[in-house]
Every structure is written in structure tokens, then in C-alpha cells.
Amino acid sequence: MAFSPSRLQSYLLLLFSVLIIGTLAIMLVEGWSGFDAFYFVVVTVATVGYGDFSPSTVYGRAIAIVIIIAGVGTFVAAFADIVETLLSREERKERRKKINMIVGIFFSEFGTGMLRTLSKHDLCIGEIQKELLVSATWSPSDFEQLKTRLRSHPYCIAQESVDLTGLKQTLSQKKGFLIALLENPVIFEHDSFTETLQAFFHLTEELMYRENPSNLPHADIAHLVHDINRGYRLLVFEWVTYMEHLQVHYPYLFSLAMRTNPFDQEAQVEIRE
What digits encode the pLDDT tens for the residues 209-220? Predict the structure, then answer.
């Protein structure tokens, strides 16, 4: 059964109600102090049952029966949900690590090079190029501001500048790699990355159906450039998200990523200082 926060909240609310109402009822019927009554209710609900306190009246025993029926099941259910929550959280962390490893492989083998190639043909890159020069001093708000900026930024790969034949060759060589990533069920938990992969796989299919991409009608070129800009836009955003992840969790990988920044024309992988 999948974990539900609202279900756990309901269990905890019911358990709290049983504890409070049961305590007040035992105090009223048995004449016990508040602490003794609460202690009795807790050990009863928790199925400990030390036996040092027990109701002496019929009404007190009736209340104890109600506490057992209503409280024990609720306590067990709430405890099971809390354990499930902790386990699910750890499982999500592990899955997220695997996803980010896949994203890292994607950029190492495909994404960074594709960004470098496409950004050279982006007529609008000058508007955001400086903003894409991320650094180790960036805060989460800096990354968030860049993402907000990217959502409204136009991507302007021009029809006359893109080399469709070269792009077809590059994508056809990477088709098996893209398929292998899409076959990994883990990535479908990362919607934006999955969308990026699908966009480039679709572009690959489009180009491979054209025997001679260098001699296409104007309308067909416009269609392909639209697909290119769509994948490019998704790829830029995914790159920024991945850079933020590296900065927080893997500073040494982030250092390499900064020195190979596809938007930095002066980037040098060699460390000179």
C-alpha cells in the first residue's frame, strides 16, 4: 500500500483523541490522577499492560475495552505508517541518487557536447550567456533566478545556420545510447529529464527518416528547427538543474563541469592557478 500523508494524519488524530478522551474518562470514573490515568491509557494502547493499574469499576472496565478496541489498532496502524514513511524516504533518496548518476552520464556522453554545438547557432544566446556562467559561490536563489529567466527566454537557432546533416550523423551515432537511457525505468521518476530524452529521441527519428537533410523544403526545415529548439530549451534547463545538484552534492564534479561549461567560450579544463 502506498504511503499517504493524509492517512497518517488521520491515524495520529484518532490516536490523540483516544489518549485524551480515554484519560479524561478514566479520571472521571475511577477517580485517578491525570498522570495515572494517562499512564494507564498509554500502556493499554501500546499493549504493554504492566498490571500495576487496573479499573475497579464496571464502567472503568468498559472504558478500558473501548480504549483497547479503538486505540490498539490505531496505534499499530500509525506506527506502521511512520515506519513506512521513513523507509519510503530512504528509498526515494536512493532512487534519486541513481537518477542523478544517469543524468551525469547523459551530460558526459551527450548533453554537454550537444549544448556546445547548439548554442553556437543560437542567435539569442548573448542575452543569457553571462547568466549561464555558474560558479561555486552561487546560492539556491541564484539558480532559481536563472531558471525563472530561462522559462521566458527565447531560443533562436536559425534555419540557415544549423547543419542538419551533421546533426543527423551525431544523433544517429547516439541513438543506441538514448534508447538505453529511455529503457531504464528509474528515469521516469524524473519527468523533466524524461521529456528531454524523448525530445532528442524524436528529433533523431525525424532526421533519420530524411535521406538528405541538406536538401529539404523550407517548411520541412522549419519543422525540424522547431524540434531542435524544443529539445535545446529542455536541455539548457536540465543542465542548470544538474549543475545545482553537483554544486551541493559533488563539488569535485562541479569543478570539472564549470571548467567545461558549454556556454563559456573561454572555458579551459586545465587548472592553471
Answer: 999 998 899 999
127 and 55 in a single domain? The answer is no
Q: Read off the amino acid at residue 256.
A: L
As a whole number, the mean pLDDT across the chain is 88
How far is the C-alpha of 63 from the C-alpha of 55, rounded, in Å? 9
Query: Does 76 score more than 90 pLDDT?
Result: no
Q: Hey, CA dihedral for 204, 206, 211, 216, is it positive or negative? A: negative
pTM value is 0.70
267 within domain boundaries: no
Residue 177 is part of which domain span? 120-259
Q: Which of these, 219, 272, 258, lies nearest to 135 by C-alpha position? A: 258
Which residue, among 262, 225, 238, has the nearest Cα to 150 in the 3D structure?
238
Contact by Cβ (8 Å): 200, 240:
no
Domain CATH for 48: 1.10.287.70
Please check the confidence at residue 1 and state whether its pLDDT lies above 50: no
